[in-house]
Amino acid sequence: QVQLVESGGGLVQAGGSLRLSCAASGRTSSVSTMGWFRQAPGKEREFVAAIKCGGSTTDYAESVKGRFTMSRDNAKNTVYLQMNSLIPEDTAVYSCAADRTCFRSNLNSRNGATYDYWGQGTQVTVSS
């Protein structure tokens, strides 16, 4: 089992920045791919970013490319999502996810249904 705990959410003005963290515990050595997803009120969960295969490859949704950066600190079993130039449309609950599979295909790493483990989520609110 792997447990995930997110932190770093909050309220920020448009144009501002936030850094989310996701700390993993338990059988972390088995984790290969980690992702960030978000869900806004009344909308479906959507993919934000992923680090695949132990950190060798990153992938971003078009809507956040160039603004968000995902990184991974294997020594701390933690992944981060640095979010810059935030816009009100980024408002959502952000959740991290983990899986033991090295998702070589973006189709898999962008699909939340393929992840085994999830955190509880952290709220990000961007005011205009």
Quick overview:
The chain has 1 helix and 11 strands.
Shape from CA axes?
A: globular
Mean of pLDDT: 95
Report the order of strands and helices.
EEEEEEEEEHEE
Integer-rounded radius of gyration: 13 Å
Question: Explain this structure to me?
Answer:
- 3% of the residues lie in helices and 51% in strands.
- By secondary structure, it is mainly beta.
- Strands 2, 4, 5, 6, 9, 10 and 11 form a seven-stranded mixed beta sheet that branches. Strands 1-3-8-7 form a four-stranded antiparallel beta sheet, with no helix packed on it.
- The termini are far apart.
Q: Which SSEs are present, and which pair or pack?
A:
Blueprint: E1 2-7, E2 10-13, E3 18-26, E4 33-39, E5 46-52, E6 57-60, E7 68-73, E8 78-83, E9 92-99, H1 106-109, E10 117-118, E11 122-127
Parallel strand pairs: 2-11
Antiparallel strand pairs: 1-3, 3-8, 4-5, 4-9, 5-6, 7-8, 9-10, 9-11
